[in-house]
Amino acid sequence: MIADLVERLRAIVFRGRRRSELDEELRFHLERDVEARVRRGIPEDQARREAALSLGGLDQVKELVDDASGVRSLTDLTADLRFGARALRRNPGLTATIVVVLGLAIGAATAVFAVVNGVLLSQLPYPHADRLVRILNESSPQNRWGLSIADYLGIREQQRVFDAVGLLRRSSMALTTPGGEPEQVQAGRVTPGFLAALGVRPSAGRLLAGEDERPGAAPVVVLAHDVAVARFGSAAAAVSQAVTLDGISYTVVGVLPPGVHDLAGFEAGVWPAMQVSTPPRRGPFGLVGIARMREGVTPEMAQRNLTAISARIFPLWQSSFSNGSARFIALGLRESMVGGTARPLRLLAAAVLLVLLVAIANIATLALVRISAREHELATRARLGASRLRLVRLVVTENLLAVLLAGLAGVALAAAALRLASAFLPGLPRVGEVSLDGRAVAFAALATLAAALLVSVAPAGAVIRGRLLDSRADGRRMSAGRRANAVRSALVAAEFMLALPLLATAALLGRSFLNLQHVRLGFDPSHAFTIPVSLPEARYADSTNGVLPTTAEFWQRAVQRAREAPGVVAAAVTTSLPPNNGGDVNNFNLLDHPVPPGSEEPVAPWSGVSTDYFAALGIPLLDGRLFSASDTANGPPVAIVSRAWAARHFPGRSVLGQQFISGGCTTCPPTVIVGVVGDVKYLGLAGSGEGMYAPIAQEPARGAQLVIRTAGPPASAMGPVIATLRSVDPGLPLAGRTMDDRLRSELSSPGRWTILLGAFAAVALGLAALGIFGLMSYLVRRQRREIGVRMALGAEPGAVARMIVRRGMRCVAPGLAGGVLLMLVAARWTESLLYGVAPRDPPTIAAVTAVLLASAAAACLLPGARAARIRPAEAIASE
Amino acid sequence: MSDAAADLLPGTLELLVLKALSLTPMHGWGIAQRIDQLSGEVFRVQQGSLYPALQRMLRRGWVRSEWRVTEHNRRARYYLITPAGRRRLEAETVNWERTSAAVNGILRVRLVDL
């Protein structure tokens, strides 16, 4: 076995030497033979002739030895490759078609695979990332919310399943370094357990330690690598330096590794230690809980432990929060990060796979048509002694070369596309991690291989079945084999079958996108801009303490001063902004019809607003009154609700004067509803219009948005307003953004998905049309004579053209029927991505089917016209 | 003369070549001569069969080859039997004897024996 291999390898590697050795060996043999004959008395001339004769042809012997040495199959392969390359060059149109069509499809599929792999499939960049979980409160799968300090402390003390538990509160803080300008940066205030759970290592200094989270500990911060470099020159230089965050001095204890811009998907430049002390009440919630499961702990075990802890600690806080169905849950960190993007991404993956299949079917049809065109040549080769296997190899090698080129083009294309991906899909979590890695290249190789196989199978089958080779000697006039025709038609039908759901889904997404654009916003975005403000704890108190001004006082002054700036019509402050900045979602219990004790309370988006908020956004008052200056922190708690809220909870009745318990606070006085305003969406444009408002004076808030309505263009009023606000507090970093801009970015993500899918659908439509065009053109060419005979017998040119189109339709129709079925089945995956249109919307499916039929008919027209132009005499004579 | 030459059974040529080489290393011409001579000129080995056969046996590791100088000071490729070749020769010899004995037995049968 080994000797065999060695000898074969030697035969290949030393081919030249082996040849000359064989020559020498045979020459030696010949001379000895001649000598022997001469010794027997034969004259030398005759001896030489006899010897040559007995050798039986020098070249033939060499061939036989070649066969025996096992190099034959390899020399054939190189011949095949050379022949294939020649054939590709001879037929640049076909080669270009294969490379472009398959290259595009493989490239797109590879790029999408890389994105899907990077975002959905690959592990997070933390050690043993499969053991990381996110901990949340849940009362139902639709209602989940973050942890509170009280939750964190309870879990940390009682859990038996985690190596580490940590907490994160995201905010934006003003960062000042000695000699630098204040800059608003994203901040992630974390407990030491947060960094420990993720298993991050510092590139300089240390991360946070247990004592850093104790109340009263010296404030410390960990910096992102790029922040450290920008501010101090290097990571090492930043350690032990002091930075100021929101007016408080922090010591830098460590720096994260370079390239780490986010932790668990939360971007931040500074990571100050969070100090936790036992809170007076259960809330507020909204903090991010992360934990690392111990080795050997399953998610089920972790969940059981969390459920037990919920049962123990929830009753302790009943006075400030009661929700009988609530409990802690642990979600895989990756799932919790990817969340809502999984669906559109999966849809994209399915779409690109369909395009790839359509492209393969297209090329397979082309290859089949081509092989039929070569019947004559192949038959001749067969008669000249080429074995059937050799012919199959010849045909396959040729396709293989083209598909291989397409694969290479695809990888290059995917690399280019991925460079654009993070710019095109900015909302995608983890998109920064996406790259054309080994797995993506392996996928491209696999796709190429599969394409090569699928494209080769039909032509190879045609050769093996021998239909081509058994053709009559002249190799012409043979009507296209029934079976080959069936395969070709099926391939084209398959293209239409796959294209239909793609096109229909793109159309549905497009309609849904249009619907989103025409959603009744409920407010007037023109002439309005917003400024996010976050008030530092060092300078503002939550409630009056005699030392610092309160946050409520700041908001009041800021609104007053902004109102005085030139060009300002109204100024207000709010904790939520439409269409997607939901702020809080609050639970409430209506005194009129309370939920039974222990069951889940209703919830709604909850905003703290100043008196002019509704005027600033143009939200109409429908009933009752708006907030006034008399709704102060000490006054009775009041609320305004939206029309949708009123219609849901008090259908057909007036809500004015109705009372509810807010946020599960059983010790607080009930809140009275004093007004009803128009519906505004806070949870995305596709969300409901339900909403509740409280006076910001009664809802202390550190982070909020100033909303300014202007007389002229909002951008020109931004500068003066910001300048005015600086006079209230010069230490706040302030930047404005118009409401129109906000709306545009809310629409950009669905818009991009629609564009991507639309592009794929357009490609599939084009390929399918090309497929039926190619098939019918081929049939017309094949049946020139038959058509000629028909015309000679009196068929009108128009009738001939119609016949061709009809035949094309007959081929496409079953594909479309299959496509409609496929669409009906696939609809359930698209449902959650649509707004205002059903996933099986009949008019859309009908319209898409009509479009496909029409494009198929259009694609058949040209071959039909060609058939109609056939001159009977010429066509019959030509054969 | 070639009319009288017997056809070799498939596989027999290799057995004969191995036998010839088991006596002494030889070049191709020598092998052909030796088989002609040993068979009493019954077998005429054709070069068209001999060299491919040698190539096959090289691949199977039964023989190896090296270039040597002949007694007449000519360069020639000599073939040598390997240990694997000797084992093969033994096995094939036993096999051959059993087969030929059986064939001979059949051929000697007369009607009266039945």
Describe, in plain words, how this protein is organized in 3D:
The complex is a heterodimer of chains A (879) and B (114). Chain A is α+β, with helices and mostly antiparallel strands. In chain A, strands 1, 2, 3, 4, 5, 6, 7, 8, 11, 12 and 13 form an eleven-stranded mixed β-sheet that branches. A six-stranded mixed β-barrel of chain A has the order 16-17-22-19-21-20. In chain A, helix 13 packs parallel to helix 16. The longest helix of chain A has 44 residues. The radius of gyration of chain B is 16 Å and the shape is elongated. Chain B has one domain: Winged helix-like DNA-binding domain superfamily/Winged helix DNA-binding domain (Arc Repressor Mutant, subunit A), CATH 1.10.10. Chain B has 114 residues and is α+β, with helices and mostly antiparallel strands. Helices cover 55% and strands 14% of the residues of chain B.
In short:
Chain A is built from 26 helices and 24 strands. Residues 469-480 of chain A have low confidence and may be disordered. Mean pLDDT of chain B is 82; it is low at 1-5.
The computed structural class of chain A is: alpha+beta
The proportion of residues forming helix of chain B, as a percent range, comes to 55-70%
Give the low-pLDDT segments of chain A.
469-480
| Separate helix tally of chain A | 26
What is the number of E strands of chain B?
A: 3
Gross morphology of chain B: elongated
Strand content of chain B: 5-15%
* Global shape of chain A: elongated
| Spans where pLDDT lies below 50 across 5 or more residues of chain B | 1-5
Q: What is the distance, rounded to the nearest whole angstrom, between the alpha carbons of the first and last residues of chain B?
A: 39 Å
Number of alpha- plus pi-helical segments of chain B = 4
The first-to-last residue Cα distance of chain A is 56 Å
For the largest sheet of chain B, list the strands in their spatial order: 1-3-2
Using a beta-carbon cutoff below 8 angstroms, give the protein chain pair with the largest interface and the number of residues from each chain: A-B, 27 and 24 residues
